[in-house]
Amino acid sequence: xxxxxxxxxxxxxxxxxxxxxxxxxxxxxxxxxxxxxxxxxxxxxxxxxxxxxxxxxxxxxxxxxxxxxxxxxxxxxxxxxxxxxxxxxxxxxxxxxxxxxxxxxxxxxxxxxxxxxxxxxxxxxxxxxxxxxxxxxxxxxxxxxxxxxxxxxxxxxxxxxxxxxxxxxxxxxxxxxxxxxxxxxxxxxxxxxxxxxxxxxxxxxxxxxxxxxxxxxxxxxxxxxxxxxxxxxxxxxxxxxxxxxxxx
Length: 248
Fold this sequence. Notes:
It is a single chain. A six-stranded mixed beta sheet has the order 6-7-8-3-9-10, sandwiched between helices. The chain is globular, with a radius of gyration of 19 Å. A hairpin with a 2-residue loop joins strand 4 and strand 5. It is built from ten helices and ten strands. The chain is an alpha/beta fold. The longest helix is centred in the C-terminal third of the chain and has 16 residues, at 167-182. The protein folds into two domains: 1-77 and 153-223, 3-Layer(aba) Sandwich (Rossmann fold); 91-149, no CATH class.
């Protein structure tokens, strides 16, 4: 469904993403992991149209969408969430979700009905008529997912949707993510919480210092020496191997 071909993004002298490529099959949950500052959110920005690549292409269902604006990609079926959740505090939860629903449903009644349906689907049914400002961090994360989901995407880009949640909140939202995929929406997710990556993702891509350094099934990727060193520093893989030998 999605093919990212050698995307590069330069900010003057800084190369934030350096010829990164990945592919996301339809019907999958694919992970994008890497240390802080690796360029993951910048890559999301180029996929969704919020940033213009310096080089490379973005293909969605075989069509080159590299030069398209975000709203045109949204109409094609690409939606994204943002790391920093900023709901419209003066609106209710349902009204916030309806902002996304207006993309497909121009009539207010239809947009609100869609918003209530999506809000219920992500676990916000009892909060729909409350001000968005009353939501907890976990509630705001669900609202961010709901607003994107209300655009009725075919591809959903989740940017650290679990960040800031406690273990029980993470456990509760994992089935929501899985149910979105089971409902026909393909997912590409940036995530630091490896429990979630291991549980949800069929394939994972690893970005470090702007470059893709590994890809494959989660357990295989997490055992890759390059990946270990990207997270833990040079020599970490050798140290871990030595420690395992001692323990054995």
